[in-house]
Description:
Elements (H helix, E strand, L loop, with lengths): L13 H4 L10 H8 L4 H19 L4 E7 L1 H4 L11 E8 L1 H9 L3 H16 L4 E5 L2 E5 L4 E9 L5 E5 L6 E5 L1 H14 L3 H16 L5 H14 L7 H18 L16 H26 L3 H12 L5
Parallel strand pairs: 2-5
Antiparallel strand pairs: 1-2, 3-4, 4-5, 5-6, 6-7
Amino acid sequence: xxxxxxxxxxxxxxxxxxxxxxxxxxxxxxxxxxxxxxxxxxxxxxxxxxxxxxxxxxxxxxxxxxxxxxxxxxxxxxxxxxxxxxxxxxxxxxxxxxxxxxxxxxxxxxxxxxxxxxxxxxxxxxxxxxxxxxxxxxxxxxxxxxxxxxxxxxxxxxxxxxxxxxxxxxxxxxxxxxxxxxxxxxxxxxxxxxxxxxxxxxxxxxxxxxxxxxxxxxxxxxxxxxxxxxxxxxxxxxxxxxxxxxxxxxxxxxxxxxxxxxxxxxxxxxxxxxxxxxxxxxxxxxxxxxxxxxxxxxxxxxxxxxxxxxxx
Length: 312
């Protein structure tokens, strides 16, 4: 990935293509969003690692389905990947073989501990830990979050929830959200993916204390409800950052099941997130003014200031 938002490729053609556009119609924020994803090689590694984890778990468990899900499959994962980056895999267990975990006391915790034991044996030099719904395996290049699951009667899945004294399973439907996300992204010409990745880079660069998924869903909701179906990436990004302090303040619900995504955010983190969102908004307003004035180079610098990237 580049170190920042590149200046316009053809500044002499601004009257023909608009501020910051090249001859293909791409803008500097479009290019920036394109550069934020993982590389093709990293994508291949993610798929290979899922397959390897499935092989390991199948030595001691009966798995009826496996799925790569999360930001990687929606095209909203940001790079470059590091040990702090995570990708999500789900392994659906046989109810006939492992149903005691679904029905029994402390079953969700027992299930996660069993998965953890299997993975620890094969990865003794990696940090393997339980984190609410998943078993996290921290490799040197990125972390894989392994979610054991059972099929749900509604067509979705149930995954462990250790926040409820280790006795519950919670419903999830990653396919449902992915289908909704893709429908909006296709209707907006791929701009939802771009805005979501830029929003996640803002979160990462400015260390805004909200989860990556929370930030993505805020971007999803904003683009979904934007009245102008032909809005540019710049306009959508500027508008999203303009609304970000208010969105953090009022809370966000999961688009599929309606659960609050910020229910575990304490008051101190919420105030800090709002403060940092307001700081980004101030810089983004300056970028918007420069863009409207036709000064694309200065607008790019202000975009960089807002998003926390160095400018070449």
